[in-house]
Design brief:
There is one protein chain. A 6-stranded antiparallel beta barrel has the order 1-2-5-4-3-6. The longest helix has 11 residues. With about 200 residues, the chain is mainly beta. It is built from 4 helices and 12 strands, in the order E-E-H-E-E-E-H-E-E-E-E-E-E-H-E-H.
């Protein structure tokens, strides 16, 4: 479990095919790598991955074919940047919202609108997820916990402060770029509950 608060903006050091459709992904992130533990879970662009090795500067992960197909990790190349967050501990403050690291879909940036130092970004997402979106609700974009500003059929927008722009991947994204989207876990459970709820009048 994660909170959507990015702890490190990492840079991809290498992407090595494993011969069976997956890749070994190595990212440079000294702040995380220094204390990374073999087998621990770390969210990479909002995708929960397992540490398979690390050194003083970098952390390595293995991404299977399904992960590459269902997320934007398959589009990462040497020099690309990725958001990292270590798993939530019981004693940690919950500064964002509950994020599982299980991506629901890949969205596309539809518009980038600067407003002084702030930027509003709109994303196109499949309409099948519209019921999970409410204004002022939460969504994880590339693993970043964000608040929804507007919600339209197949589209959502968020407003980014300078800190988020400077310390996450969204600061360098442009129209047409793909992002990993995870919708609010609580919204999913509520939707399922009401979908199967029979009301007797």
């Amino acid at each position: 479990m994660f909170t959507g608060l990015v702890q490190s903006l990492a840079q991809v050091r290498s992407v090595s095919p494993d011969g069976v459709g997956g890749v070994r992904l190595s990212v440079v992130a000294p702040a995380v790598a220094a204390s990374a533990v073999l087998g621990e879970s770390i969210a990479v662009n909002g995708v929960c991955l397992t540490v398979v090795s690390s050194d003083a500067d970098a952390v390595d992960f293995e991404c299977g074919p399904e992960t590459l197909l269902r997320t934007n990790l398959g589009r990462l190349g040497v020099g690309s940047h990725a958001n990292l967050e270590r798993a939530l501990r019981v004693s940690d403050p919950l500064g964002g919202h509950f994020v599982t690291g299980h991506v629901d879909c890949v969205g596309t940036i539809a518009a980038v609108e600067p407003n002084g130092e702030w930027v509003t970004i709109s994303f196109a997402v499949p309409k099948e997820f519209d019921d999970l979106l409410v204004i002022k609700g939460s969504v994880a974009i590339d693993g970043i916990s964000l608040t929804l500003v507007t919600v339209e059929p197949g589209r959502l927008s968020v407003m980014l402060i300078p800190h988020t722009l400077a310390h996450t991947t969204l600061g360098s994204k442009t129209v047409g770029d793909e992002v990993n989207v995870e919708f609010d876990l609580l919204a999913k459970h509520v939707k399922k509950l009401f979908t199967h709820l029979t009301i007797t009048l």
